Request: fold
Amino acid sequence: MTLNGWLQILIFCGIVLALVRPLGGYMTRVFAGERTLLSPLLSPIERGLLALAGPAAREEQHWTAYAVSLLLFNLFGVVLLYALLRLQGLLPYNPAGMGAVGPELSFNTAVSFVTNTNWQNYGGESTLSYLTQMLGLTVQNFVSAATGMAIAIGLIRGFSRASARAIGNFWTDMLRATLHILLPLCIVLTLVYVALGVPQTLGPYIEATTLEGARQTIALGPVASQLAIKMLGTNGGGFFNANSAHPFENPDNLSNLLQMVSIFAIGAAFTNVFGRMVGNPRQGWAILSAMGILFLIGVGVVYAAEASGNPLLQSLHLAGGNMEGKEARFGIAMSSLFAVITTAASCGAVNGMLGSFTALGGLVPLINMQLGEVIVGGVGAGFYGIVLFIIIAVFVAGLMVGRTPEYLGKKIEAKEMKMAVLAVLCLPLAMLVLVAISSVMPSAVASIGTAGPHGFSEILYAYTSAAANNGSAFGGLSGNTPWYNVTLGLGMLMGRFLVIVPALAIAGALVAKKTVPASAGTFPTDGPLFVGLLVGTIVIVGGLTFFPALALGPVVEHLVAVAGETF
Amino acid sequence: MSQAQSVSILDRRILLPAVGAAFRKLDPRTLARNPVMFVVATVSALTTLLFLRDLARGGPDLGFSFQINLWLWFTVLFANFAEAVAEGRGKAQADSLRKARTETEAKRLTSATGRDYERVPGTSLKVGDLVLVEAGDIIPSDGEVIEGVASVNEAAITGESAPVIRESGGDRSAVTGGTEVLSDWIRVRITAAAGATFLDRMISLVEGAERQKTPNEIALNILLAGMTLIFVLATATIPSFAAYAGGSIPVIVLVALFVTLIPTTIGALLSAIGIAGMDRLVRFNVLAMSGRAVEAAGDIDTLLLDKTGTITLGNRQATSFRPLKGVTEQALADAAQLASLADETPEGRSVVVLAKEKYAIRARDMASLKAIFVPFTAQTRMSGVDLEGSSIRKGAVEAVLAAVAGQADGAAVKELRAIADEIAKTGGTPLAVSRDGRLLGVIALKDIVKGGIRERFAELRRMGIRTVMITGDNPITAAAIAAEAGVDDFLAQATPENKLELIREEQAKGKLVAMCGDGTNDAPALAQADVGVAMNTGTVAAREAGNMVDLDSDPTKLIEIVEIGKQLLMTRGALTTFSIANDIAKYFAIIPAMFLTFYPQLGVLNVMGLATPQSAILSAIIFNALIIIALIPLSLKGVAYRPVGAGALLSRNLLIYGLGGILVPFVGIKAIDLLVTAIGLA
Reply:
């Protein structure tokens, strides 16, 4: 580890923190329907679209109506994207002449992009037409992110409103998230990326002759526009197969920093939106602190592990950090930081090969996802994820102040508990059960790229990434088989909707409750004590479930490597 | 029932039957009430079958699996035992109550007015029957005195042997079946049929027969069931992970890991904590009609306390007579005394005494004066006498002024108000006196605030509870006493209506309100309050409306009731935290032992340095079972509550039960491992 490395990490943290308040304030006003700087330009569009959609798009909804709207919208998205993938050979904007995508891969890809996962069992430049990339993937990149934001806002209203019935309108919330937040930021970011050298063209691939005289096809496309939303919406699906390690998708350190900041910007700002909406910004900062602690621990572990290098190579007196699978233009510090950010948030974009990280360097991304991606997390998704943990933390520890549990004046009772437990339960269900089946199924085991514990980590990582809706791949595993396409798709659906519906149910239960005023007997949730409690709960409740699996994967891999053995 | 009679936790009379009960509770229907323990019993049954199969076939490691099986069953039995001990303490109290419920003979009156009666068995009485109870008789069932006055020994239910007075009318008209009339006679209307009396209800409450899961317990059970399911997933998937690595894991080891990971500690002690909470109230001579009420007590935000008897000493004393201009002190004292002759309240008596001592006016006989007593009511807020051709009234200033409105001249009203204000400002209570519509002057009464009450209120404030003093006094007097006593707020000139209004207002703000009361006019407020404590001396209506009854009729107990409620919730939270925090150490004990055969490198995780894989697993499961026994006293006694504010309380408890929960099993499992290895069990 170097001072320079840590300085770069701190600069990143500083920028994210500086953005929290202005972005949080802007988002709060947007979701409240208040006037903002961009209102003169955007509000007429918003009003026009809502008028076109009819009154149902504006009326306040009970949580069930909110959830049904959301599920229908997502179902429509899956069907549309599936159709687009199957029919792309017949459609325009296909200069490379890409044919129809297979049914299992189309299912996997459609689910993947609608659930904000962006797991890619295909290489973009060798499978998809420009139209599919733009109309299919990029559109879903926007609306899947906006869906997550809408859920988070609905849940926040559960706390900020009292004795009410409705939690907002899904269509309005989603439209506002897209139109006022994602779109303007993406336009700016796209232009910046183009300035930094990222291609944005509908022209065909370029044929080039190399110095040795060999012919090479250089893939191009509308990269910058997809790159902007891929990061900002924590989608992570790369235009190119190599994702943000590709020089056209991440040309230099400035674009790298910009991408990392975009991943965290909206997720971190959501804690501020929450604080503002419940009338106490400190509540938001407390949540962000808990996220920050877990994040910095993760960064420290990965950076230390990568900087100290591969124990096997060191036993051969090959000093230096682990540069395998990393881009030289980013180096160890920025590759480690990127890996932690992309898995802490539900992004999944990568600027290096995670499978080539050291065992401990690969352990942290796994844990980040297994905790439910609550360390900042996906846009909106990270916030409602951490609220589930807050509910459990407050329930258990809140009793210890001698009152029945409450959070921000809302009593946590059987219904909230039932829903929180259901949501927390779905991750181990989707991750562990599918891994358990795949790790003993010969055809599934045949897909792995490395023998021994690392191969196990490949399977574990794939399902963890799918269920957590992350989408980053460990590498090594050949996932484009019917089995993996279908089961990973199922994992994504479970990890997304088995959390969303309970989260909205909690919002519906909370919004109906009175707000109990705080007193000296109320457990304060805006101080260091709460932060510590939340961190402890996330680690123990969220993490311990995966201890046996992790012990058999990265942990044993590390111990074996230290002992100088290989498989 | 009193403190002296209560039974200690380690009493042999409780422990021995509890051992038997622990086995009886293995009945699946009983176990099914507790999801965590039901799961443990199910997997124990499964592994026992596997063990028997291996025994028949001669499988490997029989001694080891026998021991694991044994400790799995101990885990269930210890949980049953904890519940049985908690119930046992209630049973001991129920038994002493049952002695009071002896078969009685009742003297059922045959007419509504006469004293003719027929002797019938007490059990045959119906609601509405009239009975006569004379000196030496046991009151056959709950009822209301409709005529007469008697001294009654209620030791059977309160443990207090000093007799109490029960009389018709007013707030001391309720009598309880099983208590004994010591002197005089009363005519009682029966209000409860056999089997539904107060005593019957008390017995079933302390026995825990009617115990329902409280809302918070239900929510906690959901969490525990959810965690159990999560660990089902975590352990059931291990065999295929191991198969990938080329190893296999015996079922008994998986079960051992599973049972140690699921929250057995809190699962085992949860119902014991609930029963013990009710029991703690009972030993405090307070009966909670439901566990829900005890839980609500912990959440109380606002405490409504009657001034008289709670904040001040019951007896307000008359200290001076303050006549208006043109009235002599003698005349005022005379009228005041006449108005108070039949007034049996301490205030009334103190007026008679003051008039006698200071002005030598001898108390007269009501009958010889042909005086008709006009009693005090909460609506008129006045009392007095009607003599031949003359009527005297005394009461709250506003009430008397309202009564003489139009008759008294403005100057007198103004003067009276000035005097009253002057008295009120010093914390005294002014009582206006009028005769035939003419204002005479004011009696000054003085309240004496109880010693130490100020500190109690400061303590409540630190607990986050707001205290509101309820008083019939005028606002100025109330403010002076409120300031002296240190309450947060007061409701002056309280009527049953505005008391109810106040409770509703607080509740609308999302607050939980506790109050106590004894009169029939308190009943609506008692029913409205989240915790309504009725005094045992109170009327039947009050006792029915409240969700707790204080057998000692001591309103200051509200404070302790809140503490007991908080203690109950804290104990639940502390043991849940402890139980979950324990998992870390258990993983470190079992995971390396489990995978050692195919990944010896994982031995590094054996941070406790446990001797062998078998001793590690055995030690973990033994620790898991023994910790239940070790925590029974804590779950029955409760975690100590300190009024230090929520933040300080939480950090203290997190340190003890959270951090302690992480560290203790490391030490415990290591110690057990040393012992297990030393005596050669594994």
Summary: Chain A touches chain B through 69 residues (CB under 8 Å). Chain A has 20 helices and four strands. The beta strands of chain A are 206-209, 215-218, 406-407, 410-411. Residues 383-563 of chain A form one domain.
